[in-house]
Fold this protein.
Amino acid sequence: MSRPTSLYHPVTIGDVRIPGNLFLAPMAGYTDVAFRTIALREGADCTYTELISAEGILRGSKNTFSLLNRSPEETYWGVQIFTSSPFAAGQAVAKIVTLATPTLIDLNCGCPVPKVVHHGGGAALLKDPSLIYMIVKTMKEHTSIPVTVKIRSGWDVQSINYLETADAAVQGGASMVCLHPRTRTQGYGGKSDWNHITHLKSYLSVPVFGSGDLFTPQDVLRMLETTRCDGVMIARGAVGNPFIFTQVKSLLKGIPPIRVTTENRLSTALMHLDLAISTLGETLACREMRKHFCAYVKGIEGSAAFRNKIVHAESREQYQRLVEEYIQSHSS
Ligand SMILES: Cc1cc2nc3c(=O)[nH]c(=O)nc-3n(C[C@H](O)[C@H](O)[C@H](O)COP(=O)(O)O)c2cc1C
C-alpha cells in the first residue's frame, strides 16, 4: 500500500492539469453554482454541473442556459451533457464552449431516469458502445477542451460492459473516464462494486476516476488505496457535508480531520443560502435550499424538529430566525 499522502495529487486530463484529485460529482438538482462554490471553498478541486440536455442547449431553452452559470471562483469546472445524438452533442459543445468556457466537457452515460433513457440518453448509451464512440468523437471535433465520460458498470447484471464502453469512449477521444460501478437497474441502491474500478484502472491508459458510496473521508481513502484510481468524484457524501473535501485532505496528510461543529454547519448553510439567493433570487433559493439545509443539520441534536420548521422556510429572514432560535435553545 502507498502512503496516504501520495494518494492526493494533481491530475492531468488531456492538456489540463488540475491541482488535486478530489472532485464534486455531478448531481441533478444539487450541483448548481451555489453548491459548487461552497464545495470549492471547502476543498473540492474541480466540480461538474448537473447533466444538461444537448437538445435543450440547441433549442436555446432559458432554463437549460441557466445551468451554465459559472462562479468567478470556479477555476476548474466541467459541464456535463446528455444526448443520444452525435450531431446534437457536437453542436451543443460548440455552443457551450463559447458561452461558458468550461475546463472539461463530460458525456453522461449513467443517468437511470426514465425521461432520459427513454430518449436513448444517459445509461441507455451503455447498450450501444459504438454510439458512445460516435458521440465522443463528434464532441472532440467541436472543441479542443478535454472530453470526459461518466459511465456505469452496465445496463444490468447480465450486461456488465464497462471495459467496452470505456474503451469506446477513449477511442472516440475521451481524456478521462469516471466509473460509478452500479448498473442502471440498481439505480442508487445496493453497494457499488469497486472491483470494477480496480479492473478499469488496470485496463485504461487515460485517468480513471471512481464514484460510489463515498460517504466518509475513510471511504475516499479506501477507494484511492484499494482501486488505485486516479481520483474520486464525491456525490451524496458531500450533500450537506461539503466539509468532506477538507477532511479527506487532512486524513491523507495524516492530520486528524477537523471536527465540524454545529455552528460551522449552520454558518456554512447560511452562506450557501446567500449564494443561492444571489443567483436564483430569494423566493426560489429559499425553496431550493430546504433540502440542502435539512442535509446540513442531519444528525445534530434536535435535528428532526429543526427540519420540520426548515421545510416551511420561505425567506432569508425566516432561515436566519430559525438558526438563531436553534442556537439559543441548544446553547448550554
Ligand atoms: C440526486 C442525484 C443526482 C445525480 N445526478 C447526476 C447527474 O446529473 N450526472 C451524473 O453523471 N451522475 C449523477 N448522479 C450520480 C452521482 O454523480 C454518483 O455517481 C452516484 O451518486 C454514486 O455516488 P455516491 O454513491 O457516492 O452517491 C446523481 C446522483 C444523485 C444521488
User: Anything to note?
Assistant: The domain at 4-253 is CATH 3.20.20.70 (TIM Barrel). The pocket of flavin mononucleotide is lined by residues 25-30, 50-51, 80, 108, 110-111, 150, 180, 188, 192, 211-214, 235-237 (CB under 6 Å).
